[in-house]
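Hi support team,

I submitted a single chain yesterday and got back a structure, but I'm not sure I'm reading the token output correctly. Could someone confirm the output below corresponds to the sequence I sent? I've pasted both exactly as they appear in my results page.

Thanks,
R.
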Amino acid sequence: MVRGPSGWPNLGSARLERQLFRVQIPQLGASGVTRRRAGAPRRPRCTGNKRPVRSREVAGQVNAVEIRSLTVRYGDLVAVDGLDLVAEPGQVVGLLGPNGAGKTSTVEVAEGYRKPAGGSVRVLGYDPLSERRELTPLMGVMLQGGGVYPGMGPSEALRLFAGYYRNPEDPRRLLELVGLGRAARTPWRRLSGGERQRLSLALALVGRPRVAFLDEPTSGVDPEGRQVIREVVAGLRTAGVCVLLTTHELEEVERLADVLYVIDRGHLVAAGTLDELAAQAGHPVLRWQTSPHVDTSSLGAQLGATVREERPGEYVADIAGSPSVVGALAAWLGERDLPLDGLRAGRAPLEEVYLRLTRGEREGDGGSGTGAPGTEAGAARGERGVRAGVPAGTAGERTEGDRLP
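Hi R., thanks for writing in. Yes, this is the structure output for that exact sequence:
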């Protein structure tokens, strides 16, 4: 095996690349365009930026993702139990839930990486398993594990991945879009965690997908990088791309998602917009700050609601912030010469809504659940990241046995 000066395999060796990927690697020219071998049949070409017309992609007729009564099992363990989810083109959908809730299993089925035990799944009208060849060019998948050669830079990786698609995005444009222009030739092993995340996002978008599955896109990313990713996701929405976002960073979901699905222990707990979820989780809240350790019983009687001191000097009441309520609060504090700061009225923040919904689910089922960390389901979730080095449906494609636990 040929090795470079750092000890890593020499990535310039086409023979080695074929061995690592186990498929014929497309030959890339300087522009990143695949060169046709002499004597090889010509493939139909896409002109301009338009895709070939497909009967199932007619606007307004097909949901981007449609999941009905999905069940996923790992032996006797039910990881997903009767889940329904619908995502439309141009919609950013947030999939939330604690570890072991069934999020990854659900997404793997939609991506065609796992065989469900029951239910139906359609992505752009296609069955992800039986019609994977037709669907693969229309999907983009961003994983937490990058899977890029340690010695390969962003520019080289994007040109390599672009060779798998008939009408790829310009790798140079993508580098600028995700803010990696200056790091275009920096080896993967020298990229920061945030830069790796941005490259993973670019790799998911190089095929001009109609549906993008983004797994923890802002994890480990600095504030500047987060803003870049938010702008990219907003641009995808504008372009009519459906984005299915799975993350534990609730602040990012609150900024980006149009619709939220909350899953816990394999069950759908709640679905809707943030306002709709807040209405399901409880009443509107009023928050404010004043001196610590005030008489909350007396203040609650004044407002007509229970008042809680969540942290010293920070108070919340489950009541709408109407002018009369705000006036009563100000009057009570004024009589005692206490300050009033940080007054906020309206729905509860997503973190509070999320905790109320998931806690309610756990209390309702007595604490039993599925897909807990350390179980067979939890171990299976690591499979997807290990094979993240190449686009779905090309090198490293999963077999029927891989989809089963």
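A quick pointer for reading it: Residues 140 and 383 are 18 Å apart (CA to CA). Let us know if anything else looks off.

Best,
Support desk
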